[in-house]
Specification:
Helix content is 70%, strand content 0%. The chain has helices spanning 2-18, 23-29, 34-42, 49-59, 63-68, 93-113, 120-127, 131-137, 141-164, 170-179, 187-202, 206-233, 241-260, 268-283. It has 286 residues and is an all-alpha fold. This is TetR family transcriptional regulator C-terminal domain-containing protein. It comes from Saccharopolyspora oryzae. Residues 119-138 bind DNA.
């Protein structure tokens, strides 16, 4: 484990050397006190999952690369499919930083206001730049929705790898995967807002259907491989893993939609309780 964490620290140092600003500015960008960043780089403190995710966002690398040394290394979560690949080649990190700033703003505005209520000029105002700059990265408004979906997929993948890479027990991992899908206030609720809008738009847009299908396959495969691993460990019942995956993901989807729609009696707490009871009743070996 120490070799792994030492390698992780070295990879963070590598991307930090390419960062166009100071180490203090880098720390501020990832929401970390500069002293804590120094301690993490020297090994007297560990990077948290949130910090690793933010480092990946800021520098254009994946958490899988930071932890395991490669984007294609098999890990706890299924990697995004070809049409939903995480990130882009950062090249000039100053350029990548601008792209990330615009994507962050577009993603947040679409999550909060709705795709059809967000104009390119709104994103430009949020970033303190011009509409022409936004169009350089996103030629059309539809591209904003496409990229927010890709961004959501990348965020989910990076967060799952960061949170779960050291969790060996499949039962614990499945419960934590469920927790990562609850539309709690903040980031997760915003992700759910994006997904609801993508579901609506993809019903009418064949091109978006392909991207949505590939993205959803990643999540489905992550649940499926966790259930199969639990069966191999002897902690889950030896029933059809695919059927369990279909049922669990559908249950998560339906409950999440009801919570966001504000249906009476549907809360995050109730959703958590129902999902945990399903896992214990239908998946765990008794």
């Amino acid at each position: 484990m120490e070799d792994t964490t030492a390698a992780l620290r070295q990879r963070v140092r590598d991307v930090l050397r390419q960062y166009p600003g100071s180490q203090r500015a880098f720390a501020e960008q990832i929401g970390l006190d500069p002293t804590k960043l120094s301690k993490s780089l020297t090994g007297t403190r560990r990077f948290t999952p949130v910090e690793l995710t933010r480092i990946g966002e800021l520098t254009g690398v994946t958490v899988n690369w930071l932890i395991n040394g490669g984007d294609d290394v098999e890990t706890v979560a299924a990697a995004p499919q070809r049409t939903a690949r995480p990130g882009r080649d950062p090249g000039d990190l100053r350029e990548a930083s601008r792209y990330q700033q615009i994507l962050d703003a577009a993603w947040r505005l679409i999550a909060e206001r709705g795709f059809h209520s967000v104009r390119v000029s709104d994103v430009a105002k949020e970033c303190g730049t011009s509409a022409a700059t936004i169009h350089y990265y996103f030629p059309g408004r539809d591209d904003l929705l496409t990229e927010t979906l890709r961004y959501s997929v990348r965020l989910a993948f990076d967060r799952q790898v960061a949170e779960l890479h050291a969790v060996e027990d499949a039962h614990e991992r499945l419960l934590r995967l469920v927790e990562l899908q609850l539309p709690t206030p903040g980031l997760l609720r915003q992700e759910w807002s994006i997904w609801l809008q993508v579901w609506t738009e993809s019903a009418l847009n064949p091109d978006l259907q392909v991207l949505h299908s590939d993205s959803y396959t990643r999540w489905h495969d992550t649940i499926g491989r966790t259930i199969r691993q639990g069966q191999e460990q002897g902690v889950f019942a030896d029933t059809d893993a695919e059927e369990l995956t279909v049922t669990l993901t559908a249950l998560i989807d339906g409950l999440g939609i009801q919570v966001l729609a504000g249906r009476p009696g549907r809360s995050v707490e109730r959703m958590r309780k129902v999902l945990r009871e399903f896992v214990e009743r239908e998946i765990v070996r008794h």
